[in-house]
Predict the 3D structure of the following.
Amino acid sequence: MMDSSAAYARTALTQERQHSPALPAKDKVRKRLPRKEREKLIVAEAIRFFAEVGFEGQTRALADRLGVTQPLLYRYFPDKDALIERVYKEVFLNGWDASWLQTLTDRSRPLLDRLTEFYRAYTKANFSFERVRLFMFAGLKDGSIASRYMAHVRDQLFLPLCHEFRHEFGIVSDTPISLEEIEMVAGLHGAIAYVGVRRWVYHAQTPADLEPVFRELVKSYLTGIPESYRHFANSAGAVA
C-alpha cells in the first residue's frame, strides 16, 4: 500500500504536469512553423525535459520527445551547451524582475512589508516544478551555471538587502559589506527557497497558500537577527 507521503508526491507531480503539459503530439512540432515559434517550442520542451531528468539528459531523447531529428535540433542550437545556455537565460535570468529591487529599497515602507512583497513576487515567478528542479540540477552539473546565477543574486538581492539591513538596524558604517553579512541575508533567502525544494524536489506536502508562511518567516528573521547582524557589520572581516 502506498503511504501518504508517496501518494502526495505522485499527486503533486501529476498536477504540475497537467498545469504545464508536454507537447501533445509529435506531428504538431513537425508541421511547418515560423523559425522563432519552433525555437520557442524547442526551448519550452527542453526546460521540461531537463527539469525531469537533469542536465545530463541526452539531446537525442529530447529530439524524440519533440518529434524531430537530432540534426534538426542542432540547426537551432549548435550543441547541447548552447541549448542549456538558452534554458539558463529563460529560467534563471528571465525569472528575475528588475523592479523587485525598487520594492526592496523603498524606505518609505516598513522592511517587513517590502520583504514580504518581494518574496510573494519572487516565489510566484520561480516556484514551479521546472524552475525549482532546474535550480537544483544547475548546482550539480558544473560550476558555471550555478556560480553565474549566484553572482546575479548576490548583486541584485544580497548586497542591496545588506544595505537595507544596516539602515534598518541603525548601523552607520562606510565599510564594505562583509561576507558574514551576506551569509546572514542568504540564510533568509535559503529558508524561503527551501520551501520550493520541499515541494518539487522532495515532494513533501506544503500549504496551498504559502504567503502567510513567508510573512512569518520574514517577521521571525527580522526579530532575531539585529544583534548578530550588528556584530558582523561592526567586526573586521573579509569583504564581499
User: Anything to note?
Assistant: Residues 1-21 have pLDDT under 50 and may be disordered. The CA atoms of residues 55 and 84 lie 8 Å apart. Residues 96-234 form one domain.
